[in-house]
Fold:
Amino acid sequence: MTICLSKVYKAEKVELSEDRMSASSTKGYRMVRATRGVCEGAWYFEIKVEKLGETGHTRLGWSMEKGDLQAPVGYDGNSFGYRDIDGSKVHKALREKYGEEGYKEGDVIGFYVNLPDGGSYAPKPPHAVLYKGQRYLCAQDPKDDPPRVVPGSEISFFKNGLCQGVAFKDLYGGRYYPAASMYTLPNQPSCAVSFNFGPEFEFFPESFDGRPVPRPMVEVAYHGFDGRFENGAVNEKQQ
Structure:
């Protein structure tokens, strides 16, 4: 199974399409992320804002494994968002001026991440051990494996193929997943977005200004660890 939106790593109120390439939600901000993430190299995907309606808003971007699913992208230190209202960037719930203007229904947003040699800076993954016939995950003590910045790393956002500038740089090593969060007022139609992981894009940028040309997220290999076990095991189909 190729990359799609996760049935496990999403807020309960987020609804997915049958092919798990589109997501919709109502009321407060909730997040969904993709089944595969990246920790090294340059990568790209797109999201089309399918429906905002009168009260809908989105925050779109990248989330690490510990990003809060019950909050918007950019709410904590584990996710990085791009806001529709004024084009601001959001991280740790702090909004900062970024793009010249926001984006709207029908716009296609491009997402670029570059993590040069990022695998050397990523935290050590939890490892499984068997004890009395049961499998348990043993995570590395954060004190023994503190976060490390990936030199030269960055996140940039594009609107309809035009770069809005570097939004975030000096990222911590780790795995970054495509993510979206949607919002509407109560009793309003759902806000909806659709993902495109490639290889064919609607607005693939003509230039990356000397930065590494990214690979499409559809080429990301399954990395074999999901982190949330159901009945002792999880496979990719359950995500």
The chain has one domain: 5-120+151-224.
